[in-house]
Every structure is written in structure tokens, then in C-alpha cells.
Amino acid sequence: xxxxxxxxxxxxxxxxxxxxxxxxxxxxxxxxxxxxxxxxxxxxxxxxxxxxxxxxxxxxxxxxxxxxxxxxxxxxxxxxxxxxxxxxxxxxxxxxxxxxxxxxxxxxxxxxxxxxxxxxxxxxxxxxxxxxxxxxxxxxxxxxxxxxxxxxxxxxxxxxxxxxxxxxxxxxxxxxxxxxxxxxxxxxxxxxxxxxxxxxxxxxxxxxxxxxxxxxxxxxxxxxxxxxxxxxxxxxxxxxxxxxxxxxxxxxxxxxxxxxxxxxxxxxxxxxxxxxxxxxxxxxxxxxxxxxxxxxxxxxxxxxxxxxxxxxxxxxxxxxxxxxxxxxxxxxxxxxxxxxxxxxxxxxxxxxxxxxxxxxxxxxxxxxxxxxxxxxxxxxxxxxxxxxxxxxxxxxxxxxxxxxxxxxxxxxxxxxxxxxxxxxxxxxxxxxxxxxxxxxxxxxxxxxxxxxxxxxxxxxxxxxxxxxxxxxxxxxxxxxxxxxxxxxxxxxxxxxxxxxxxxxxxxxx
Length: 509
Hints:
By secondary structure, the protein is α+β, with helices and mostly antiparallel strands. Helix content is about 50%, strand content about 15%.
């Protein structure tokens, strides 16, 4: 464990190096750019300076070799060297060698100066050994740097001499100094200009990132998801990031609003459910207490109490079933899908309801051969809800009609009645949970039937609408997407009673 801990110990020099780096992304980009640019410019300047210096020195050396060759030619044509050595030698004037800045000095093999140019003003060039042949050297004479080429020569008379030809390096050094100054000035100026340009460009390019960070911080501190990053016309990665961030905030805001709505709806739903369950529970408790406290109750009272307990329990059972259905809707559970012969299903359901309608007429007015893709049980429950509502609020002798027709790519199912109708101010709310047009008639239902009907229609990809007026009846219209294919057979209406619809919560406001 000790070795492992020691191996994971942070390196102090690494943290020290990181602490020297700029913290902002803009400063880091600028620093890296200037570092690369500066290193490149310095390297280029050094290479260029080296090539220039090498070329200039090469030109000087080449000119010295040419001057030395000219001196040797002049000395080869002088007859005074045929007889011996040690005589003084008159150096020809500079014009003889074409350049006035050329210095010439001739010595014998012992280093004695036999002659020199007037430009030396009596000064002597340092002599160097020439056993290994011609060579170049840089010497200082009178505070001035000279480039000297020394070469031994042997004249026709057997006289051995050393010719030294030199040129001042002041012009070369002045040129190189000017080049160095120009290079340093250019590096400095270009670095400053590059720093300004890169800093400005980096600031402009990274401004959306700064706005994004400010917006994220504002959202985190205030919880306001409506804030957005100000978008520009840029289409680069930074602009794309800003647009993606705004889209994420929009989705979060939408999800937050949806979640808040669900929580508010859930709280209201729990309160309404508690209120609805309290009435049947109170009735059941009261009747059970009466049966317990009055053992010698008459048979009629006992039967009435038991019937009331049974009715309230049945009502509570329907309410719980409705609550479970809506809870399933809120959880996002999808219905199973299959091809459903809608005319056949409508015929079966209408036949069931017609046997229980009593003195009310339930009929079918046109069933188009249409198939839909959906859940047969859910579609049957949807139609039962609408028919049961129509039966509850249609007076004796009234008429209820069911029709099915094709409306483009949708199947249109209509349930119309000649009942009491719904006032216009209540129409926008009748599909809300626990909503009733007449709160005093709470015993007629739980107020969940039409909410379940709307969820069933929307779960199939359709919708439900209502048209109604007081005293003129109501018409509920359900639109469902059509499935592949059509049915060709007429619906069969069963002749046998299929039983009562216990447990199905069907209510209308």
C-alpha cells in the first residue's frame, strides 16, 4: 500500500509548470500561437542570417584569392627577383589589383616583410605559418577586423615568398549588424501585431463560450431555464455549441414545465381521489356500524343497508379501476396494437348497450368498412364510456345514434344523443379529471370517464371532440388513424345478452 501510495503521489514540478500557464482559454491560445510563431520566426531569422553571413564571407574569400592570383602574376613578370633575395619589393598601386580596399603584404620565408600596400600605413599583417599551404584567417589590425588570405609562392629565380592579401570586414559586419537589427525588429513587430490580432480573433471566436458560461452560471444560480445564449450568424463549432446549448435549455425548460404540471396534476388528482373515496367509505362505515350496533334490525332495513354497502363498494371499485387506468396513462405505458375491424367492434358494443337502454333508443346509422390499428379492449372501453354517458343524460324516449365513416386517412366515430346537453362555458373543461358540470350531482359518477376516453383516443394517435348545446343534445366525435386494408363484411349483431358492464367507469359531467 505504501508503494502504491508513493507511486500515485502527485509530481510537484508538474503542478508548478501548470501554475505558470494562463488560466483563460483565450490567453492560452494566444500564448501558444505566439510561442510557435516566435520560435518559427527566430529559427527562420537565424537560418537566413547564417546563409547571408556565409555568403558574404565566401564572397570576401573569393575576392582575396583572386587578388592573390593577380599579385602573383605581377611578381612573376618582375626581373629584379632573378638574382637573389632580400631586396625590397615595391608593391604596385592598388589600381593594379582593381580594388582599392585590398591590402597586400609580401614576406620572405623567414617572416621578414619585403613589401606592403600603402593602405597599411606602415603596419604589418600578422604572419602565420604556411607549411600546410594557403589558408584564411581573421585578424585585428588597428582595431579593425581583417580577413587575410596567406599563400606561399616560388618565383622563377628560386625565391620563396609569402603573399598575404587582406580586406576589411567592416562593411560585412555593418551589413550583418543591419540584418540582425532588422530581424529583431521584424520579430518584435510581427510578434506584437500577431498578439493583437490573435487576441482579438480569439476573443471574438470565444465570446459565445463566455456567454454560454455566464448563461449556465445564471441558470444554475437562479434556476431560470428561460435564459438563452445570444446566437450569431456564425456556423462554426462555437456557434453550433451555442445553438445546441440553447436547444438543451429549451428541452430542459419543457421537461421542467411538464414535470411541474404533472406534480400539480398529481397533487390535485390525489386530493380529488381522496375526496371521492371519502363519500363511499363514509357510507360503508356508517351502514356497517348500524348493522353491528342494531342486531335485531328488521329484515327490510338490513337488506337496504347491505344493498347500500354493495352499491358504494361497487362505485368505489369502479373509481379505483378508473384511477388505475389514468395512472397507467400517466406512466406512459403504450397500448398493444393490432388490426381491428372497427365496424364489427361497434356493432357488438352497440348491441350490448341496446339491451340495457330500457326506454331509450340506441341505433346505428352507417358503418363504413374501416380497419384501425389499436387495442380492441381499449377501443371497446372508449365506445362504452361515450354510450353510457349518453344513456345517463338522455331522458326517457330519447334517441342515441352511433355512426362510423371515413374521413381521409382517419376513421370518424360519432356518438350523438338527444339529451340535456352541456352549457358552452363547461365545454373546454369536460375532459378534465373529476370535473363535473353540476357538482351537486356527484353521485352520478366520479368525473373520470371522459378523461379516460380522451387518453384512449390520444393513445391511438387520434383525438376526441364534442359539440353540444343545452336542451339540444351532444355529439362526441372520435378520430382514429386508419390501418392497412379495409373490411368487406358487414358487422354481426349478437342476439344474446353479453352481460352487464360492471367495473367500467363511464361518466359524463
